[in-house]
Amino acid sequence: MARILLVEDDPQVGELVKRFLEKEGLGVDWARTGREALHQVWNRAKPDLVVLDRGLPDMEGLEVLKALRDLDPWLPVLLLTGKADEDSRVEGLLEGADDYLGKPFSLKELLARIKALLRRSGKEGRRHFGPLELDLEAKKAYLEGQPLKLSATETNLLFVLAQTPGRVYTREELLERVWGPDFEGSERVVDAYIRLLRKKLKDNPQAPRFIETVVGMGYRFLGE
Description:
elongated, 12 strands, single chain, alpha/beta
């Protein structure tokens, strides 16, 4: 799964973008300042792509871009900005941005541009967890080389769990991400679909390979 570093100081925009991209199967780390973003890139595993707001409270976005280029000249960077004039776009591209998107923007267009940059950089594709293979682009799963016959809900549930291996997702979180915030059913529907998913994954609840129950909390995907 590709990991995106979102650098955005506006809490409403940041939360909206983060939730949308995660729902689309991307892992997202969110930094609110330029220094925080550089700290994350320097001290943690490097992201596959950076979505960088040009108007940050502590540093100008182009300063952050230059620093990112010093750390990794091949790291794809998509620049977001409220400056939509041609000179600003050209300036950002000349400073090393791989793409440029003016605010306000469509979330679908943002996703399309991110996927295009990931394809170009070779970061988009498939992810393996032992005998389980997830096709991130086609949203399909394969077990031991054979395609899994999953419903749309089962597919979404699997991809949400697998986007951050090791992280515990509560039933409430899974309800919101898979069934949507307007779903009015019981949290027990999550347990029911986990059972269905485990059966198709040939997963043993007592000795799971993929999905582990965390008592009193929820579920997590076992992986990297």
